[in-house]
Amino acid sequence: MTPVADTNNPSPHTAETYQQSLTVTFEFPVIFTRDVFAADNPLLADVLDRLGERRRHRAMIAIDAGVDQAHPDLQHRIKEYFHAHPDGMELATITVLPGGEVAKNGWTVVREVMWSIGSAHLDRQSFVIAIGGGAMLDMVGFAASIVHRGLRLVRVPTTTLAQNDGGVGVKNGMDEHGQKNFVGTFAPPFAVLNDFDFLATLSQRDWIGGVAEAFKVAIIKDAAFFDYLCDHARALDQRDSAAMEQTIRRCALLHLEHICSGGDPFEFGSARPLDFGHWLGHRLETMSDYTIGHGQAAAIGIAVDSHYARQVGLIDDGDLQRILDGLTACGLPIWDDLLDRRAVDGTLEVLEGLEQFREHLGGRLTITLPDGIGRKTEVHQMDPGLIEKAIDFLRGPAAS
Predict the structure, then answer these.
(1) pTM for the predicted model, two decimal places
(2) Fold match between 30-201 and 204-399?
(3) CA distance linking residue 333 with residue 237, whole number of Å
(4) pLDDT under 50 in the chain at which residues?
């Protein structure tokens, strides 16, 4: 290793630099399946052994409390699964944790996960298998990523939103300092197992929430997928399983394509193109104390930013109407009264989301907007007056 000379520095102060270059390859399977904990289904056992280590893998199971309640036989089935595969798996412990945004709001549940990992004497070669919705997966993934500097995480997402977006990505996190995902890590999972059977027990809000993420990615990346969503909006609202599974699969693959080929999986730059509509959506969530679901908040953000895009000439009236009609036809909102809430100085409170979004990424503000359907562009400033006009426009349909 030879030092890199700084020939452009005339300063009398010298420095000897040894430049390092590391290349680390990550890979993880995202598998669409059913009945993953059936004793005669080898999938989970095979996934734990996918590196060919041929040993008994110790695993902790973390279950979202809502999932545990909706599937009262789940813990028994998990124990039976491990019992059926004794040569390759050892169940260290099962812990049930709060689900929803409360799970990742502060350090309480994160510490509980860390304590469970420590009490079970898990090491870096051990597995944490997290079964639940997106917020719970974020929180468990964060805890697993910092204990021993990282255990192997297997995600089993149980909501539409987790299966098509958050659960297939490389981020983990928790809410702190009044901001969503203020604390977190980039840590790719060991594997993701999307078991469609978990979707049957979802509330209507959680069933349709993931469709907002599908509209988001379709509007900026895939015009044909956008057409599919508009054509099947009623079917999705009426819980058509085939339509939902197709939606989840395509949405997840578009997210994975971006993560793997977009050139910035750990977001070192200032752009986050897959967060179209999310600067406002995240702000609405925190303003509502998380009574508004993530998918519903994202849908409102998509509606506002789409109208903004129409005002600056990026999409036409027909595009805007199709976006709004598609969202509402599948039961997603395009309005909430919190959009009207103002700070003491008279400015709309949601506008604080712009600076929070910029600060989260660093660098200059970068907002993704549609440039026609299926294409995107990035802007580095947002006119508050045009945002307010978008909100005024959306208030009309909400009142009718």
Answers:
(1) 0.89
(2) no
(3) 12
(4) 270
